[in-house]
């Protein structure tokens, strides 16, 4: 599943290619046809990412809400007249560009109220300039839930996926099994700052990078050996996804 930086990239590209232009909308696959008809031939006001959720605003306060899930894919084309595949759930097109969405977990039309309800359910997104760790801290500081699990809970903090959580906790030397309430506030602040730095770097580099030196490699995610102490990395299921940690380096 794409982590938050991918969705921000997607919103940026949609804005570059479609913002302020009149677009045609259709659903070659058919499952979004009725909604596509409502936004067809209207101006795309702008796209916004919040964690793993993408919303595309159209005239008259209509919003397409997209969650890619495991199988969703987006593709941009610069080929006018290109025929869509029959699996395309949503195609947007203006005079220069085409955007095709296939296989999303969710693609639905929202009004402004529904969009606000969605945002109200989501925790702050570290990539957003306005996001603030204090909001997250208030929600988690009395929680017995392991910090490694909390980082995936999108109602607490938005956009962190499996790779960023393992890397962030390793970088901060925090054991993922520690209940959130046992973290000091300053530890959580440093963890948040790490996520802000590296998730924003992920947007600008268009891939997950978790250290500035060896830019291509993760530090602990997917590894067998700890890069710091060379002991064996422990793998286990935490919050439904595989966690990687070194219990010698992470306390
Ligand atoms: Zn280690």
Question: Can you walk through the features of this model?
Answer:
The protein is of the alpha+beta class. A hairpin with a 4-residue loop joins strand 6 and strand 7 (98-102). The strands form 2 sheets. Strands 5-7-6-1-2-3-4-8 form an 8-stranded antiparallel sheet. Strands 9-10 form a two-stranded antiparallel ribbon. The protein contains 7 helices and 10 strands. It is elongated, with a radius of gyration of 20 Å. The chain has helices at residues 4-18, 33-39, 112-121, 133-140, 147-150, 162-171, 185-205, and strands spanning 22-26, 42-50, 53-58, 62-67, 73-77, 88-93, 98-102, 106-110, 234-238, 241-245. It folds into 2 domains: 4-121, MutM-like, N-terminal (N-terminal domain of MutM-like DNA repair proteins); 133-245, Helicase, Ruva Protein, domain 3, CATH 1.10.8. The structure holds zinc ion. The site of zinc ion (ZN) has 7 residues, from loops.
Key structural traits:
N-terminal domain of MutM-like DNA repair proteins; 251 residues; eight-stranded antiparallel β-sheet; 23% strand; two-stranded antiparallel sheet; Helicase, Ruva Protein, domain 3; binds zinc ion; 30% helix; 7 helices; 10 strands; 2 domains; elongated; alpha+beta
């Amino acid at each position: 599943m794409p982590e938050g930086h991918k969705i921000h990239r997607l919103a940026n590209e949609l804005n570059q290619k479609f913002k302020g232009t009149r677009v045609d909308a259709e659903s070659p696959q058919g499952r979004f046809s009725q909604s596509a008809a409502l936004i067809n031939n209207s101006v795309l006001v702008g796209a916004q990412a919040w964690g793993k959720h993408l919303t595309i605003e159209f005239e008259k306060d209509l919003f397409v809400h997209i969650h890619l899930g495991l199988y969703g894919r987006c593709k941009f084309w610069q080929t006018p007249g290109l025929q869509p595949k029959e699996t395309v759930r949503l195609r947007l097109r203006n005079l220069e560009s085409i955007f095709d969405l296939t296989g999303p977990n969710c693609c639905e039309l929202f009004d402004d109220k529904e969009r606000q309800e969605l945002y109200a359910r989501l925790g702050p997104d570290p990539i957003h300039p306005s996001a603030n760790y204090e909001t997250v801290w208030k929600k988690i500081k009395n929680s017995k839930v392991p910090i490694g699990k909390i980082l995936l809970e999108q109602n607490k903090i938005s956009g962190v996926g499996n790779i960023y959580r393992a890397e962030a906790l390793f970088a901060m030397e925090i054991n993922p099994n520690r209940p959130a309430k046992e973290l000091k506030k300053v530890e959580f602040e440093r963890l948040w700052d790490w996520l802000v730095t590296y998730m924003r770097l992920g947007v600008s580099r268009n891939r997950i990078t978790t250290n500035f030196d060896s830019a291509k490699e993760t530090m602990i995610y997917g590894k067998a050996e700890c890069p710091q102490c060379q002991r064996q990395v422990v793998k286990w299921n935490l919050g439904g996804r595989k966690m990687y940690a070194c219990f010698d380096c992470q306390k």
